[in-house]
UniProtKB/TrEMBL annotation:
Protein origin, superkingdom: Bacteria
UniProt keyword Zinc present: no
Span list, region Disordered: 506-535
Protein name from the UniProt record: O-antigen/teichoic acid export membrane protein
Membrane topology: Multi-pass membrane protein
Principal location class: membrane
Location(s) in or outside the cell: Cell membrane
A GO CC term assigned to this protein in UniProt: plasma membrane
Alphabetically ordered keywords of this record: Cell membrane, Membrane, Transmembrane, Transmembrane helix
Length: 535
């Protein structure tokens, strides 16, 4: 198979799987916005701030308990199959999940026992105990879904997490708020994880049963690779666990700092003003999750040229997908905030926050899946260092700027952290794999949404437009020349590959195991820790 054909095949898997993941992320994004609307309209600002800060703390703990297992599985599962060690997949799952589940259980029990001392003002210790007991369920659900994604299967994640869990939570919260307060809303929000956990476990069992079974020839497995599996897995994954926590801290810790330094009401304003960031991140994450096993396969095959083509095309697709959304929101920030309470409400104070966040996220999206590529190349240590630097920038600037600039200070800190992380990751990926950002291609791609979507929406806002209905209409109308421009330059933007992939459908659930002999690109650092039998 030629290099172009190899890249095209992987882009086909990415297009088909990414489309499914994107559909699920669209539902989850809408559900996230619905949750913010329900809480901001159903609770006073102080109580809404308490809800958002509590769920942010819950998310931080859940990511910390994952210990980076999601990235570890994405790197190791297909490699075991490529090395003819499929029978070790069950052991890999046990080695990966047991420490994470134990960590979540211990933290949940400790938090439940200390609830009387940890519960903030306005929140019953009983509510905190119930949230603590739901923590292991949330972690278990994500672990099992991450395991299915490691084989390239995105349908379980879409069905269980994006549709069921994310789609049900705002409905439950809305129903509960009709008769209860913030405590009942939090319990309802957390209770959904009980159902998603059971379904995620079933999904993984089906995924493992569908994998090719190796012909053992009646012999017993070689114990040496099996004994080294745990050591190899955790030497790669442990740094990723810390890095993942640091990355989520950049997204969530500022909410907690705003609540601590400014109060729960400003925290509610900050969450509402930044809610759109998560919507765009979900769309980008949908592509990256499907991309992980594709990058693993290309790295195992050692095909750098195909790797560069897949990275460039995936980055371009991500930009064309997400930039119109960030431009539409950032260029109409007052109208977006008006959705949560009108122009005279306390939420209207977040206009500058929205603009800063939109600009920072556009830069982050344009740099592509750098961290994903870095991880799949085995550089979890470098990923950890970058994440820790970005977290330090965010926390230090938050503490310094919040008392001076208020919510804008938190947005500046967050934007600086995102830019630092993107810049350092760009340098590290270039050194590790030789992959560099395709600036000419990205510049050409960026001009299309800026001219077609950004300028019309900004012109409407500057002319005094504030109606949400008109905003939606202007954005939809701007989409017409945008789509025409994409069709006009489809070959230069790699969209012809997307159309071909969707036209000639193949099974998108699970990629085939890479067949070439594993020849990983030589690492420029001793941080790389491949599977025991990899070179």
């Amino acid at each position: 198979m030629s290099q172009r054909d190899l890249a095209t095949e992987h882009l086909g898997h990415l297009a088909r799987g990414g489309l499914l993941a994107l559909a699920g992320s669209a539902v989850a994004a809408g559900a996230g916005l619905a949750l913010a609307l329900a809480v901001s309209h159903g609770l006073p600002a102080d109580a809404a701030g308490l809800f958002f800060t509590t769920t942010a703390a819950f998310s931080l703990l859940a990511v910390g308990c994952l210990l980076g297992v999601d990235s570890g599985l994405a790197r190791f599962a297909l490699r075991l199959e490529a090395e003819g060690r499929s029978r070790e997949l069950g052991r890999l799952m046990r080695v990966a999940m047991a420490p994470a589940l134990a960590t979540a259980t211990v933290i949940g029990v400790v938090a439940a026992l200390a609830a009387a001392h940890l519960a903030p003002d306005g929140l019953s210790p009983t509510v905190l105990r119930l949230l603590a007991l739901a923590l292991p369920c949330a972690v278990a659900a994500e672990l099992h879904l991450a395991a299915t994604r490691s084989f390239g299967q995105v349908r379980p994640t879409v069905a269980v997490d994006r549709l069921l869990r994310a789609g049900t939570q705002p409905v439950v919260v809305l129903v509960v708020l009709a008769t209860g307060g913030v405590g009942a809303a939090l319990v309802g929000w957390a209770s959904v994880y009980l159902v998603s956990t059971a379904l995620a476990v079933l999904a993984l069992r089906r995924a493992l049963a569908s994998r090719p079974r190796p012909d053992t020839g009646g012999g017993s497995p070689d114990p040496a690779p099996t004994r080294g599996l745990a050591r190899s897995f955790w030497s790669f994954t442990a740094p990723r666990g810390v890095a993942g926590l640091a990355q989520v801290s950049v997204q969530k810790a500022d909410i907690l700092l705003v609540a601590l330094l400014l109060g729960p009401a400003p925290a509610a304003v900050y969450v509402v003003a930044t809610r759109f960031v998560a919507i765009g991140q979900l769309a980008n994450q949908a592509v990256h999750q499907v991309l992980q096993p594709r990058l693993t396969a290309l790295l195992v095959a050692g095909d750098r040229r195909a790797l560069d083509q897949v990275f460039t095309t995936a980055t371009t697709w991500g930009l064309l997908l997400v930039w119109p959304f960030y431009l539409a929101v950032g260029a109409a920030a007052p109208t977006y905030l008006g959705l949560f309470g009108g122009a005279t409400s306390s939420y209207a104070a977040g206009t500058s926050v929205v603009v800063l966040m939109a600009l920072a996220m556009m830069v982050a999206v344009a740099t592509g899946p750098l961290d994903t590529l870095l991880l799949m190349a085995g550089r979890s240590g470098a990923s950890l260092a970058i994440a820790l630097v970005a977290m330090a920038v965010d926390l230090v600037l938050c503490v310094v700027l919040l008392p001076v600039l208020g919510l804008v200070g938190a947005a500046v800190a967050w934007a600086c952290a995102v830019l630092v992380r993107s810049g350092l990751a760009t340098i590290q990926v270039a050194r590790t794999t030789g992959t560099v950002l395709p600036l000419a291609t990205l510049t050409r791609a960026a001009l299309v949404p800026v001219v077609a979507v950004g300028l019309p929406v900004a012109t409407w806002t500057w002319s005094g437009g504030r109606s949400p209905t008109t905003w939606l209409l202007v954005t939809v109308l701007a989409g017409v020349p945008y789509v025409l421009a994409l069709h006009r330059w489809r070959h230069r933007l790699g969209l012809d590959l997307l159309a071909d992939a969707l036209r000639h459908r193949r099974p998108a659930a699970a990629p085939t195991t890479p067949t070439p002999t594993p020849t990983l690109p030589p690492s420029r650092s001793t941080e790389e820790t491949p599977c025991p039998s990899a070179p």
